Amino acid sequence: MNIDHLVKMANEISAFWKGEAGPEKAPAEVASHLQRFWEPRMRQAIIAHYRRGAAGLEDVAREAVGLLAAAAPALPAASATAPGTTPPTTPPTTPPTTPREDHDPVRP
User: Fold this and answer.
1) Helix (H, G, I), strand (E, B) or coil at 107
2) What integer pLDDT is reported at residue 93 of this predicted model?
3) Are 15 and 33 in contact (CB under 8 A)?
4) How far apart are CA 60 and CA 10, in angstroms?
5) Rg (CA), the chain
6) DSSP 4-61
7) How many other CB atoms are found less than 10 A from the CB of residue 52?
8) Residues 6+ positions from 58 with CB-CB distance below 8 Å
9) Which are the contacts of 57, defined by CB distance < 8 A and separation ≥ 6?
10) pLDDT at position 73
11) What span, in angstroms and rounded, lies between the C-alpha atoms of 89 and 54?
12) The pTM is what?
């Protein structure tokens, strides 16, 4: 997820709502928009960016993401990852397969 692109989109949405609803109501409108239309990974990425200092977010966008961050649970330190990366996963374990002597795939 490209955080610069998310910041740009959040700022553009904020500019729209600032003109539409006014600077007092705009942060709530932006937060509502992000909650309704952004997928969870996008919201998580922008919230993580906000918690790291919110570089590039304009005032209304920063306040809106702050509203989302206040409502979102904090991620445990172990699951926090750098932007654009995926958390490490453990491959599923499957039991070893051994041929069964009593089973012949050719004969039922």
Assistant:
1) coil
2) 55
3) no
4) 9
5) 23
6) HHHHHHHHHHHHHHHHHH-TTTHHHHHHHHHHHHS-HHHHHHHHHHHHTT-TT--HHH
7) 12
8) 11, 14, 15
9) 7, 10, 11, 49, 50, 65
10) 80
11) 28
12) 0.67
Cα separations (Å) of 98 from 50, 80, 93, 94, 95?
A: 52, 40, 15, 12, 9
CA angle 73, 12, 86 (to 5 degrees): 40
* pLDDT bucket at 66, cuts 50 / 70 / 90: very high
Query: In sequence order, what are the residues at sequence separation of 6 or more whose Cβ sits closer than 8 angstroms to the Cβ of residue 50?
Result: 57, 62, 65, 66, 68, 69
Residue 57 has φ and ψ, to the nearest 5°, of -75, 130
Structure tokens belonging to residue 98? 């051994």
